[in-house]
Amino acid sequence: MFCYQCQETAKGTGCTIKGVCGKTDDVANLQDLLMFVLKGISVYSAKAREKGIENAEVNKFITDSLFTTITNANFDRAVFIKRINEGLKIRAAVKEVCEKAGISLSGTLPECATWFASTEAEFDAKAPLVGVLTTENEDVRSLRELLTYGLKGMAAYTEHAYNLGFEDPALYAFMQRALLATLNDNLSADELVGLVMECGKYGVTAMALLDKANTSSYGNPEITKVNIGVGTKPGILISGHDLKDMEELLKQTEGTGVDVYTHSEMLPANYYPAFKKYSHFVGNYGSSWWKQKEDFETFNGPILFTTNCIVPPPVNAKYRDKVYTTGAAGFSGFKHIANRENGRMKDFSEIIAHAKKCAPPVEIEKGEIIGGFAHAQVFALADKVVDAVKSGAIRKFFVMAGCDGRMKDRNYYTEFAEALPKDTVILTAGCAKYRYNKLPLGDIGGIPRVLDAGQCNDSYSLAVIAMKLKEVFELNDINELPIAYNIAWYEQKAVIVLLALLYLGVRNIHLGPTLPGFLSPNVAKVLVETFGIAGIGTVDEDMKLFLN
Ligand code: FS2
Ligand code: SF4
User: What is its main location (predicted)?
Assistant: First the structure.
């Protein structure tokens, strides 16, 4: 195996024996083989699209498959075997569509368009031969992977929007075109950089689509005090990012005597008006994804993962048989809840029955977290915010969105938040917030010093807010605003968020705790020189730098 797609990659260069995340070598290889098959399907689907033939099955399969390969989403070997088989069938079907439509398939087809096998042993034998390292030039490899990881993040957001009935065919077309571009040896570095930027453009489209899907389905997030204590009934803990799953779980648990709590990236579900009406939706339990081993032990009830981030449970974990997955998430040994069919809801009855047999959660903390500052809520407070900036009460905003992770060096973000002067405000989104969202950082004239817009995809809200402020202050450039970007990244959704911000013109983003291992020195140099991307230093050094 060779995987370097996330921030925790071994030695900062690549996992080669087993993933730091827990992904086994065979699963990592099968994920590479699935990517290879997706490229093979794209060879035909792109030709069909040129003739105006869209294929809904292909679009859905490629999107979902990309999502399953994201860090900490799916560790289940059986899922990848099944997807590779299914992908080869879909490839054959779309090839037939091309043939029937009289589309010329002459010329040399890439191997991914013709390779075929049907047994697990053949898949295992082929998989190590089609991975990341097959691109020999490290700069080309770096650009291809940067593009690929952007696509994976985009796919995740596209899938959530799809679940709510929102689609944009342009996103599917780009994903497939970009997958093909990673096979093209004739593309120059500049052309690959151009595609990476285009990926950022479609990243904005995907996040805007998901924002529209979420807010038109569940209302605009609003200022909310989220309870972090517990009730007296047994509960279900729901994690991940999928709001459709959240809705259906709340509906099905109503009146059953089972409470619902969010974990990690599902915390922002508490901010949506449509979910607040459920009295058995108690609040948020625990903390960030990497704290799940502790949080799940004391929760007592079953846990539902709607997406990443799953941490493989210790062998003796008491919660091991209480974990369920659904959608793109999977782990061998966890029960998987099937997809919705024929317009019916997913069936969560097994989890609900399981919860009834469990003790209520142990209270590990008490209190509240304040959040719900997505774009509409911030716009509602715009006068107050603008006045605070004009009067000097707010000196600067710090966008500290992104991901959390388990490495000790992420304490930097807690210390940075604590060290920020009291006339500064943190704008956040994503699980990065858990590094400081329970600190007593106070407020500025009633505006909390940590404004949480929501999940990582709600970084889009932060960009919308920045664009609005630019307009209000009549500036020519978004970078003239008193906003600094000190972003934490971990997995591929953060990659698409970063590319989207670059596309929107944001410059001088600081990225930590370490720069991506998949950036070759030359590609890193381009990002530094063209976009002012930088790493982080010590809290003291960075405080001086940012407040200058
Ligand atoms: Fe956090 Fe993990 Fe949100 Fe990422 S819970 S690192 O998936 O997408 O962010
Ligand atoms: Fe390693 Fe990250 Fe890949 Fe897991 S996802 S194998 S930790 S680089």
Answer: cytoplasm
